[in-house]
Amino acid sequence: MNIQKLKSEEIFGLILGIVLSFIMFRLSFKMSEVLHFSNQIVIWVNTGFIVFFIIFGHYIVSRKVIDEKKRNEDIIGLKSNLLGFFLWFTVIIIVTLLNIEINRAAIMAGGY
């Protein structure tokens, strides 16, 4: 196994992604409190974008200093994460409309 040394821009990008994920998490909870709306859809919206924002932060900050291979991995990661998010989001909406409750852990694990 090779250990890769990350550049400072990459580390900053990962931290930015974590911060963006936290901001999205907080905004989603605030919105659900204001609307008095909390169910499995809110749980998935809160947790489904965590990996996306981490990859997004890494890509935005370090896209000019990383090599082409890492840049392509970030783009593929972003696309596949969005595809997975919306596929699982569709499943969660259908399940919610059918009044079927899913365990929180299953909601989070199912999307990833």
Mean pLDDT: 83
**Number of separate structural domains:** 1
Number of helices: 5
Task: List the secondary-structure elements in sequence, H or E.
Answer: HHHHH
Gyration radius over CA: 16 Å
Structure, explained:
- Keywords: Membrane, Transmembrane, Transmembrane helix.
- With 112 residues, the chain is mainly alpha-helical.
- The chain has one domain.
- The chain is 79% helix and 0% strand.
- The protein is built from five helices and no strands.
- Helix 1 packs antiparallel against helix 2 and helix 2 packs antiparallel against helix 4.
- The protein is elongated.
- 18% of the residues are buried.
- The model has no long low-confidence stretch (mean pLDDT 83).
Entry summary:
The chain has helices spanning 8-35, 40-48, 50-62, 68-97, 104-111. Helix 1 packs antiparallel against helix 2 and helix 2 (40-48) runs antiparallel to helix 4 (68-97). The protein has 112 residues and is mostly helical.
